[in-house]
């Protein structure tokens, strides 16, 4: 009986392919759009994930997310260092400054100032040069993507390649000379701005002078102390906000969910994909069932039970669902691979496979349900009608 069900399904090639195309479209939208959404959200806290050594971030209590800088006085650093359970604490400057390129153009960059002695908070991986080179005069390290894209210069001849920054090139930050001593590989930020690393004291020279210049305090809990206990102790002792890396990532994530239209925009796209896929698959599957009512009537007249007919329809729905789901996920993977070296944010974690799988299952269940009702109510006598 199952073989008959498959022959009935594949016998009408037009409707068979139509159902698969509808499910493929739905599966594609329900994986590709959430993958871009996840990529954007992960970029929102990429600055936190790139700094793997410190496990505690201390900041002004009013900070809402990682780019919402509310500077502190430098004396707060010593207060944090005096809290019991803190192994070490280092300053970090983070701000937006305009860099003047050799050709006179300007580009807004994220400038990160690291502790002069330890260079804690440096880039996750060096591509060229050494982190210790920041101790040289006027030295900066630039992320390689920014150097190749927004900080590169127009081609010397029309249609030629853009001129990328090289080690030894100079920039100008707030009328101060900055010499490129290396390149790092960073996770892109949500706005894909170039990231420049330098020392904390030099970053304060680059930045416009303010009374408060300390953006964050990076700290490490002692090995025999609980991370949660140390963060609570820092908050109670200093009055500042102290988060673990995961907690600060969560703060940033919740800010984007609550205060931007990103979740709504992608949610609407996914919902439309689900609705369109359900409409195409449901209507086509129902039309296929109606055209095969005489065959189902013959099977009923021959003594086939409603339960067997139900299983036949479920087999048909399962087959097209698996094929459509596989094609949709495969196309999403190809899309992500094709976009791997572009500015597009794309992350495809395993749970998106589960999410789209549930969506396709619901579509197939809906399509099977409207067909099952028609078949169960079918009278065997229909086969004798002209």
State the secondary-structure class: alpha+beta
What Rg is obtained from the alpha carbons, in whole angstroms? 30 Å
Ends apart, CA distance between termini: 25 Å
Spans of at least 5 consecutive residues with low confidence: none
| Largest sheet entry | 6 strands, mixed, barrel
The helix/strand series, from N terminus to C terminus, equals HHHEHEEEEHEEEHEHEHHHHH
Averaged pLDDT: 85
Strand content: 15-25%
Q: Identify the strand order in the major beta sheet.
A: 2-3-8-5-7-6
What's the structural domain tally? 2
How many DSSP-defined strands?
10
Kindly state the percentage of residues in helix.
40-55%
Continuous helix count: 12
Q: Name the overall outline.
A: elongated
């Amino acid at each position: 009986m199952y073989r008959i069900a498959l022959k009935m399904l594949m016998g009408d090639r037009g409707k068979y392919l139509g159902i698969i195309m509808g499910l493929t479209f739905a599966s594609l939208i329900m994986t590709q759009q959430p993958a871009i959404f996840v990529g954007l959200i992960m970029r929102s806290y990429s600055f936190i994930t790139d700094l793997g050594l410190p496990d505690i971030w201390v900041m002004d209590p009013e900070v809402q997310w990682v780019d919402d800088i509310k500077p502190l006085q430098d004396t707060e650093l010593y207060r944090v260092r005096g809290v019991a359970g803190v192994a070490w604490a280092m300053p970090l400057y983070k701000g937006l400054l305009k860099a003047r390129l050799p050709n006179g153009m300007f580009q807004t960059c994220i400038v990160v100032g690291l502790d002069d002695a330890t260079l804690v908070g440096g880039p996750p991986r060096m591509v060229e040069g050494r982190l210790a080179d920041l101790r040289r005069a006027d030295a900066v390290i630039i992320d390689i993507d920014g150097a190749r894209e927004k900080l590169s210069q127009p081609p010397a001849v029309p249609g030629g390649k853009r001129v990328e920054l090289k080690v030894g090139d100079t920039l100008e930050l707030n009328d101060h000379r900055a010499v490129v001593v290396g390149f790092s590989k960073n996770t892109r930020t949500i706005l894909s701005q170039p990231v420049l690393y330098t020392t904390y004291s030099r970053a304060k020279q680059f930045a416009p002078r303010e009374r408060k210049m300390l953006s964050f305090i990076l700290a490490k809990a002692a090995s025999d102390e609980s991370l949660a206990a140390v963060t609570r102790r820092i908050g109670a002792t200093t009055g500042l906000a102290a988060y673990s890396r995961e907690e600060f990532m969560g703060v940033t994530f919740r800010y984007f969910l609550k205060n931007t239209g990103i979740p709504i925009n992608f949610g609407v796209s996914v919902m439309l994909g689900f609705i369109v896929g359900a409409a195409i698959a449901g209507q086509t599957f129902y039309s296929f069932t109606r055209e095969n009512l005489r065959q189902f009537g013959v099977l009923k007249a021959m003594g086939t039970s409603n339960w067997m007919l139900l299983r036949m329809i479920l087999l048909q729905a399962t087959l097209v669902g698996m094929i459509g789901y596989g094609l949709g996920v495969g196309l999403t993977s190809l899309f992500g691979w094709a976009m791997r070296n572009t500015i597009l944010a794309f992350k495809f974690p395993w749970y998106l496979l589960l999410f789209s799988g549930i969506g396709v299952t619901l579509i197939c269940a809906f399509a099977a349900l409207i067909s099952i009702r028609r078949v169960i109510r079918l009278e065997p006598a229909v086969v004798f009608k002209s």
